[in-house]
Design goal:
Layout (H helix, E strand, L loop, with lengths): L27 H28 L4 H11 L2 H10 L21 H7 L1
Length: 111
């Protein structure tokens, strides 16, 4: 037994990499706010596409391209807004016990 620690032997060989709070994932509210902003941005791009298609109606191929660009935007906006970031595969940091062999000097100290 070790008299320095009140009779307890402390393992001094633990992992020195602390868990950082800054590496934590954003909160659910922050993720939701970011997804709402992305959805609003993508849906707001649809209005200018339709307005520009009307303004360039005399150039039929440009108006057609603008309309074709505006058609998949709602579908893409919903898919992107509902997409959550993947969860990180983290390994928990556990105490790794090391086993030391007793030497002749350790046996006498224990008595």
């Amino acid at each position: 037994m070790n008299s320095e620690n009140g009779g307890l032997v402390v393992n001094s060989h633990r992992n020195e990499n602390p868990v950082l709070i800054t590496s934590a994932a954003p909160s659910y509210q922050d993720q939701l706010a970011a997804r709402r902003r992305r959805y609003a941005l993508m849906m707001s791009l649809r209005i200018p596409c339709v307005v520009l298609a009307v303004l360039f109606a005399h150039i039929w191929w440009l108006a057609l391209i603008l309309i074709l660009l505006s058609v998949p935007l709602p579908w893409m906006a919903v898919l992107i807004a509902n997409d959550r970031p993947p969860r990180k595969a983290e390994t928990p940091q556990r105490l790794r016990r090391t086993r030391r062999a007793l030497s002749a000097g350790d046996d006498e100290e224990a008595r």
